[in-house]
Design a protein that fits this description.
The protein is of the alpha+beta class. Helix content is 39%, strand content 30%. The protein contains 4 helices and 7 strands. It has a single domain, classed as TM1622-like (Protein Transport Mog1p, Chain A). The termini are far apart. The N terminus is likely disordered.
């Protein structure tokens, strides 16, 4: 009995460590890395016009023939990124889904009629993807490529 209990506890501990190991592996990318990844995925990248986000660097990625727009923002610190994330989340409909909400990483998704939004904050960066529900997989795939 004691032997099987020890085995169960050890297996549970290993599962917990394995589950949380993926969470700590996330690291924010720089604006330059975002630009390189977006261009290699077929997006055109430009500086955000009329940037009022408070970010040190803001980029917009779009693709010809696609309804996907990806806004990238690099802030001076995580607090400013968190503030922008909270503000953007508040401006979207409240019927979205909080996927993750932690100190270093937040993710919120929303399908609102024909529109699909993904809002992600990682450390000092934040991304807002806007697209149609038909192009949802394209936006999700790019975020997966950059590990957001």
């Amino acid at each position: 009995m004691k032997k099987s209990l020890k085995f169960c506890v050890a297996a549970l501990a290993a599962a917990v460590v394995a589950a949380f190991a993926g969470c700590s592996a996330r690291t924010a990318i720089s604006a330059d890395d975002f630009q390189k990844q977006a261009k290699s995925s077929g997006f055109s990248v430009s500086e955000a016009a009329g940037n009022d986000s408070g970010a040190e660097k803001s980029l917009v990625a779009t693709k010809d023939g696609s309804d996907v727009e990806i806004d990238f923002h690099a802030f001076s610190d995580a607090g400013n990124a968190q503030g922008w994330y909270t503000s953007q989340k508040g401006s979207l409909a409240s019927s979205g889904k909080v996927v993750v909400d932690s100190d270093n990483y937040n993710k919120y998704t929303l399908a609102n009629g024909e529109m699909y939004y993904v809002l992600v904050r990682m450390d000092k960066t934040a991304i807002l993807c806007k697209t149609t529900t038909d192009k949802k997989n394209e936006a999700d795939s790019f975020l997966k490529t950059i590990h957001y």
